[in-house]
């Protein structure tokens, strides 16, 4: 018995395939977006840390990554301020105090830049959003360089860890914004 | 001498960023093995770290170098002009920026859209500058105003290259 599909059946088959629910579309969107970034695993874990990511569109994913970056910048700024107090302020080590305060400011500015980026992202001004993240990514290294220029003051390992984290997540955000523009 | 700045006029570097000047110092710029000539294309990936630069001049002279992108965020709408990528002061003549004081760390080109010009401008200083405050924001830098503020006069050398976003490789 030869397999003969009539034109009509073939047409209906085509329709059925076209309108069949795709399998796991949202997981693959996250994977597609993260593949473009430099830090695939970090991108995945950051996005998945927000449960709404499985239903988010590309712009939503960029938003989520931005929120993760902002959380780092804000918490690092607070962390540094607490170190100033903990180290006895200027009475303890004035050079270290000054550095910590300077760095707290820089991470604060990074947070401001990320907030500006979030506003531009919401307004779909992706080029501006991108440049603001570029600016934010620069502040952690400015802090590290300030420590480097002050010989005899050790760069706190916890700060180095946070610097690395913020730099990487900013890179992830830029990658997702790139993905948006495709 | 006018002919040597023609590419800068054609590329609107003279006009958009600096005024007409007479080059008086040699500045040689390269990223890895790629030597930068006016208007050449440099990929962001090879410019992620700062270029090797050597300048002529005498050891007792001091120079300031800035690198700017006047086409940020896009050439058609450059409202963040100029985006400042690098500031080094007190570079002794005949040496390189590593011998100077880096006021603003080098950030490589990462143009989000379009083809951007990346311009390196060299000034001769009248006095040592030392550590000055770097701008809080990299956006809306003004090379002319910066030079006026530090009494740097007109540029003594300028070179620019073009860069645009590279297509992403498929990772994984």
From TrEMBL, chain A:
Signal listed as a keyword: yes
Keywords: Disulfide bond, Glycoprotein, Signal
CDD domains: PMEI_like (cd14859)
Domain Pectinesterase inhibitor residue range list: 25-176
Signal peptide: 1-20
MF annotations from Gene Ontology: enzyme inhibitor activity
Gene3D superfamilies in UniProt: Invertase/pectin methylesterase inhibitor family protein (1.20.140.40)
Superkingdom, natural source: Eukaryota
SUPFAM superfamilies: Plant invertase/pectin methylesterase inhibitor
InterPro entries for the chain: Invertase/methylesterase_inhib (IPR035513), Pectinesterase_inhib_dom (IPR006501)
Keyword Signal annotated: yes
Database matches in SMART domains: PMEI
Record family assignment: Belongs to the PMEI family.
UniProt name for this protein: Cell wall / vacuolar inhibitor of fructosidase 2
Organism from which the protein derives: Rhodamnia argentea
UniProtKB/TrEMBL annotation, chain B:
Matches recorded under PANTHER family: PHOSPHATIDYLETHANOLAMINE-BINDING PROTEIN, PHOSPHATIDYLETHANOLAMINE-BINDING PROTEIN 4
Lineage: Eukaryota, Viridiplantae, Streptophyta, Embryophyta, Tracheophyta
Name of the protein this chain belongs to: Protein MOTHER of FT and TFL1
Family per similarity comment: Belongs to the phosphatidylethanolamine-binding protein family.
GO annotation terms (biological process): positive regulation of seed germination; response to abscisic acid
Organism for this UniProt entry: Rhodamnia argentea
Designated gene of the protein: LOC115743702
InterPro entries: PEBP (IPR008914), PEBP-like_sf (IPR036610), PEBP_euk (IPR035810), Phosphatidylethanolamine-bd_CS (IPR001858)
């Amino acid at each position: 018995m030869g397999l003969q599909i009539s034109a009509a059946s073939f047409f209906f088959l085509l329709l059925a395939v076209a309108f069949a629910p795709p399998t796991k579309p949202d997981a693959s969107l996250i994977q597609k977006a993260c593949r473009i970034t430099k830090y695939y695993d970090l991108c995945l874990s950051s996005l998945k840390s927000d449960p709404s990511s499985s239903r988010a569109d590309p712009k939503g994913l960029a938003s989520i990554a931005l929120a993760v970056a902002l959380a780092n910048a804000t918490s690092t700024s607070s962390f540094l301020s607490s170190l100033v107090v903990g180290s006895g302020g200027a009475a303890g080590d004035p050079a270290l105090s000054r550095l910590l305060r300077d760095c707290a400011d820089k991470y604060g500015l990074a947070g401001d830049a990320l907030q500006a980026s979030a506003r531009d992202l919401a307004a779909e001004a992706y080029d501006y959003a991108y440049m603001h993240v570029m600016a934010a990514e620069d502040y952690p290294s400015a802090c590290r360089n300030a420590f480097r220029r002050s010989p005899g003051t050790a760069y706190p390992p916890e700060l180095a860890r946070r610097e690395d984290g913020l730099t990487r997540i900013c890179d992830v955000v830029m990658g997702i914004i790139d993905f948006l523009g495709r | 001498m006018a002919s040597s700045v023609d590419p800068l006029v054609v590329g609107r570097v003279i006009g958009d960023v600096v005024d007409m000047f007479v080059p008086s110092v040699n500045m040689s710029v390269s990223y890895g093995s790629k030597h930068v000539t006016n208007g050449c294309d440099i990929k962001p990936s090879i410019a992620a770290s700062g270029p090797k630069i050597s300048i002529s001049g005498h050891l007792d002279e001091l120079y300031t170098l800035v690198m700017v992108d006047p086409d940020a965020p896009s050439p058609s709408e450059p409202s963040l002009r100029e985006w400042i990528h690098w500031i080094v002061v007190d570079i002794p003549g005949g040496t390189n920026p590593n011998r100077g004081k880096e006021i603003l760390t080098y950030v490589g080109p990462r143009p989000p859209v379009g083809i951007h010009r990346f311009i390196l401008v060299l000034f001769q200083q009248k006095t040592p500058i030392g550590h000055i405050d770097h701008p809080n924001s990299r956006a809306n830098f003004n090379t002319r105003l910066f030079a006026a503020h530090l009494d740097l006069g007109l540029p003594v050398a300028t070179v620019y290259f073009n860069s645009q976003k590279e297509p992403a490789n498929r990772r994984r």
